[in-house]
Amino acid sequence: MGLGYLLPLALLVASQASFNDDECDSLDGRDEDCALHVLQKATRLRKIEPFEGPVRLGREADVDAAPAVTDWLGSQEQMLGSDAEPLLGASAEISYSPPSSPTSDLKVLKKGNGLAPPSKATQYNGVAWPEMVFPGTGEMHVFTIGDWGGLLWEQYGDGGTGLHVFPFIRPSCSINDMKQCFNETGDASGPCNEACGYVPGVDNQAQVVVAEQMKQRAAKTGVQYFLNVGDNFYPQGMNTGCGSPMDQIKEATKVQFTKAFNWVYSGPLNGKVWLSVLGNHDYGARQFNYAWDQQVAFTWASDRWVMPALYFSQHVRYPDLGFDVDIFMLDSNVMDAHGLDDRPGSNLCHRRFNAQADCSATGGPPSVEECAAWFGDLWGRQATWMEEKLNASTASWQIAVTHFPCGHKLPWYSKLRSNGLDLLVTGHIHEQQLQFLPGQLTCLVTGGGGGITSERSPQGDDSREYGFFDLTLSKSTIKVELVNHLGNVVLTHSIPPFAGKPLQGAVVPDAPKSEPQPAAEQRSGVAAACSSNPQCAGLNGDCCPTPGGTMLGCCEQP
Questions:
Q1: Spatial CA neighbour of 15 closest among 226, 175, 197
Q2: What is the pLDDT of residues 445-455, one digit of tens each?
Q3: Quick check: 312 and 129 in contact, CB under 8 A?
Q4: Mind listing the UniProt keywords for this protein, alphabetically (predicted)?
Q5: Neighbours of 461 (CB within 10 A)
Q6: What pTM did the predictor assign?
């Protein structure tokens, strides 16, 4: 393919990079980062099945992405040359500023609760969105989705129209290898690398393939609403900058929502509410000043897109079935907000790509120097809000939805579990997973929505790469079904109501500390990798899966 397609894809290959093997050594005591590192590393070796032993899980492609993109970034100015303007927008080749976009003709309206569009994207943080009510005694279905929004050819001046899956690396398969497998323009320099496990008609059309299976299932079972975990639009969210008035929808926003959302999730999915959060790509992947605020604003221009704030709650009532649900939508992008010079390519706050960035007009970070602190403050306020809301909830079920995968902020989610959290729904890893966190908290990874190529090849009838989860809610159970891109149900699990919820208003207990593993077990396999990690040496608990494979320990300060 020509440079016009290669470079924008290479820009963000590492935007979801997880830790390299030695990165825990330099995390300055951030135990949650250490825990996430070893947890993700363990996940690459084990897949936790419901109440069964572990099975092999291939490595996450993210592990190799950071060094690859760092090498590329080092020479990108020379590589870009005269192609910089069509690739990145007229203002982006030096400052990395997002391209500008005119205002569209879309109109914003007050919502049913009388709320006008906010003056800033953060104005309604913590809002309780109006109750949704679903009468009837039939089955009640909720679909989960993440990492789904394909990129548009028009953004890159390379010809063609419509959606395109964002090619990503796989084991022994580079970005260039995957591009050669795609080869829509017919100018690949060599054959497709078999190591990529490329499946034509699936990998290059993944978002549409998954959406078609959603439509087919919805036509049979019905669906009431969606839980959307973010990375809604690749590669950098809305293809314009933050800070536009919140009562205006930019043309870039209109085009991307029209082609990657409305046109794709149509038919039986029309009119179904999407409760949504932001992923790291929605902020800009390696910077924070793409138009994440436009995704909030679009709530007032859509009858089904719901993201009124960066974090909010939704109460859902099923009067004829006698139960209700409290859903808490959370922003976990603090996990990609690092120091000014750390992790180029997967750091929302890197100084190189945010030199002129300023999202203060919409309530965001005012500068790159204040970026990490802004995300930290957002998390702190949200965590306090979440604990208060969960402790006050009298609903039959409590569900949390966020972008970063099972294992981030593990002690905190253990605390939430002790106060009644029934289910955690996440994404970021580009496949479908079912895991169990401390206290047997069920955690889903639903990152196989198809906006980006999956972690591994989607071969086989039982593939768990591309797909979605179908949650059947009732008073007595949440039935979890993993539906893959072929429409096959490849995993089923039932969640009972959490029996250990304390009385409303009771003090939330601290998360229980994990029991240390016997020395013999600590010296073998994955456990040895955890216990030998210098960053974890002075911590209580084991950051690895327990020997039975059905519980994940945590790293906590003694």
A1: 175
A2: 999 999 999 99
A3: yes
A4: Hydrolase, Signal
A5: 8
A6: 0.76
